[in-house]
C-alpha cells in the first residue's frame, strides 16, 4: 500500500546551513574531475570528506591525452590526485591504493598491469608506484620523467617544473633499471651531468629544461 503524501510547511523544513556550500564544492569538483562513474566517485569523495582526507579531485579539467595509444582512463591529473592522497606515507598498502584507484573510476586491469612491472606483495613504495604510473602514460623514459616532474613540482603550471635532484635521480635510476635496453653507463653519465647543474645552484633543483638539454633521446 503506497504511503500517503506528506505535506510540509516551510517552518517544518530545516536545511543545514553548511549543505549549500558542500553541494556547491561537490559539483565543482565533479566538473573538474569528470568521473566516468559519478556514483562510485561520489562515494569516494564523501568518504574522504568525512574523514578529512585529501579529496579525489583534479586541480583542473584535463584535455584528452593524444600521446596515449589506447585510452586506459589514467591521466597525469589522476596520478596527481593519487599523489595527494598517498604521498604522506613512504609505503602504501595495495588494498588501500586499489580502493582509491577504484574511487577514481579507473580500470582494475590497468592497476594490475602497472604492478606487474615491479611485482610486490602487500605494499609498495609510493614514489615507485607513481613512477610506474608515469611510465605507463608516456611509453618512454623521457616522457615518464616529464610527467614525474610536472606532478611533483611546486612550481606553477607552465613553469620550469623543478624537483629536487635526489628525487629525480632516485626515480630515474629506478625506471631505467627496469629497462634492460638502458645501459647503466649512460644512466650514470647523464645523472652526473645533471648533478653538476644542480650543485651549481643553491636549491639543488632540476627542471624540465635541464632534463631535455641533458638527454638526447
TrEMBL record:
It comes from the Eukaryota. One of its GO terms (cellular component) is sperm flagellum. GO terms for biological process: flagellated sperm motility; sperm capacitation. Keywords: Cell projection, Cilium, Flagellum. It is found in: Cell projection, Cilium, Flagellum. One of its GO terms (molecular function) is identical protein binding. Belongs to the ropporin family. This is Ropporin-1-like protein. The gene is Ropn1l.
